[in-house]
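A quick word before the example. In earlier lectures we treated sequence and structure as two separate objects. From today on, think of them as two lines of the same record. Here is CSF2R factor written that way.
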Amino acid sequence: PVFAGMNGSAIENFSCVIYNILLMNCTWQAGRDAPADTQYFLYWQKSRNEEEMECELYIKDENFRNTGCIFQNVSIGIEKAYFLVNGSSKDSLIQFYDEYIDLYKIEKLMPPSNITVNCDEIKNDCMIQWQRPQISHSNKDMCFKYEINIKYK
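And the structure line, produced from the sequence above:
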């Protein structure tokens, strides 16, 4: 069968987020029916022509089970990235979980930087300027919408 392994042993609630431009954090929960000794391993492939790599820095729970991974120096490509989490246990075969993800869709943007406000009391106006957030996947200025909340004190 395609899904060899015990039902309910694959991980659940897999999700990843890219933040601080270069870091990616992926987390998951152990399968509901996975044996207590199950250990999980994450592999990912940024694109079809790059090789598959295992997580180098696992996040562990109180039972030393891998429940996440921190990646450093992640760059976003054009293709979807492939993620695979498989598991091993002495007691039974563990089902794997896999997913293709567009990395640009999971990037959490940095706030705008160098915000300056110059007000002219005589003209009764203010000029607010900022630099757009840094993003990892492109240098384009398009696609940014800003919202300014001004509270008068």
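Notice the following. The domain at 12-105 is CATH 2.60.40.10 (Immunoglobulin-like). We will return to this example when we discuss secondary structure assignment.
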